[in-house]
Amino acid sequence: MFMLFKAPASRRFRLVFLATALLGFLAASSTPTPLYHLYQQAWQFSAVTLTLIFAVYAVSLLAALLTVGSLSDYLGRRPLIFTALVLESVAMLLFLQADSVSGLIAARILQGFATGMATSVLGAALLDIDREQGPLVNSLTPLLGMASGALGTGLLVEFAPWPLRLAYGLLLGLFVAQALLVWHLPESVSRQPGVLASLRPALHVPPQARAAVWRMLPVNVAGWALGGFFLSLAPSLAREATGATSNLVGGGLVAALTVTGAVAIYHLRLRPAGQILRLGTGVLPAGMLLILLALHRGELGLFFMATVVTGVGFGASFLGALRSIMPLAEAHERAGLMATFYVLSYLAFCVPAMLAGWMVRSFGLVPTGEVYALGVIILCAVAAILSLPVRALSRG
Hints:
- InterPro entries: MFS, MFS_dom, MFS_trans_sf, MFS_Transporters.
- It comes from Pseudomonas wadenswilerensis.
- This is MFS transporter.
- GO terms for molecular function: transmembrane transporter activity.
- The protein is mostly helical.
- It has one domain (about 10-185, about 205-395): Up-down Bundle (Growth Hormone, Chain: A).
- Helix content is about 80%, strand content about 0%.
- Helix 13 (about 275-295) packs antiparallel against helix 16.
- The longest helix is centred in the last third of the chain and has 30 residues, at about 335-365.
C-alpha cells in the first residue's frame, strides 16, 4: 500500500483519499443513531438524555470549528488531518468500552471535536486540489458518509454479532490506516505566522463572501435543522407513530434522507447556485408536509416516501449553500470560511433538536415531531420571502 506514495500522490488519488477520510468521519457521526434505542433499553434513559448525548457531540464540534477550524491555514493541512484522525481513533476506543451514559457522552464529546477539526481541514484540502469539483465532493461526501454510517450500522445490528461494538471496531481500523497514510500526501499550504491568533474563537468570513453567506443562511438553517432531527429523534418518532420494531428503521430513515440528498446534489451540480437554493426552499416544506401526513396516518411506507422527497430539498440546500460561498475564498481563507459554514450549520443542526428533546418530556414524541415539521416549513417560508429582493443577484 505504501508503494502508492513513493512518488507524489496523483491529483485523483489525493481527491479520493481526502473524500474517503471525510466520508469516514461523517459515517462515524451517524453510527450511534441506529444504536440509540438499544442504549436506551440497556441503560433506561429518557428522550431528554438522548438529545443531550446528541447535543454534546454538536457543541464539541462547534468548539473545534471556532478554535482550530482555521488552524490548517497556518500550520498546513497534514498535521491537522493526522491529529483529527488520532482523536477520532481514541473516540472509537471510548465507544467500544462505554458501559454507561457517561461513557457514551465522553466518546461523543471527543468525537465531536475530532469531526469539527476534520470537516474544516478536509473540506479546505479538497478545495486546494480542485476548486471546481471540491464543492461538489464537499457536498456529496458528508451525506454519503451519514448514510453509510447509519444504514451500515443498522445492518450490522440486525444481522451481525456484537451490535454495540462491531461498527466502532471497523471504523477504528479505518482511521488508524488513514492516520498512517496521510503523511505520504503532499502538503498544499505553506506555514505562515498567526497561529496563536487563529485559536481565538471567531467566525472567519472573507469580505467578498459576506453577502453570499447572508443569502444562503435561511434555507441552510432549515436543511440542517431537519438533518439534526433525523439523526436524533426521527427514528424513535417513526417507531412510535407507526409501531415499527425493526433495527433497520433508524438507519434506513437517515440513509433515505442522505442518499436522496446526494443523488439530488449530483444531478443539480451544474445548475447555478441561486437556482439550487430556491429549489431547496421549495422542496423542503413539501417533504415536511408529507411527513406530517405520515405521522397522522401512522404509515411507515409514507414516512419513508416523505423522507425521500425531503432529502431532495436537503441536498439542494446543502449544495446551493456551499456553491454560493466557497469559490469566493482564496487559498489561505478556505479553512476559516469552511469552519464558519459548519459553525452556522451545526448550530442549526443541534439547537432545534435539543429544544425538541425538552418538548418530548412535556408534550410527547409525536406532537413534538409535528411542531418541528411546522417549524421547518416556516423557516423555508421566511427564506423564500427574504430571497425575493435579491433573486437577480443569486443566479450564479
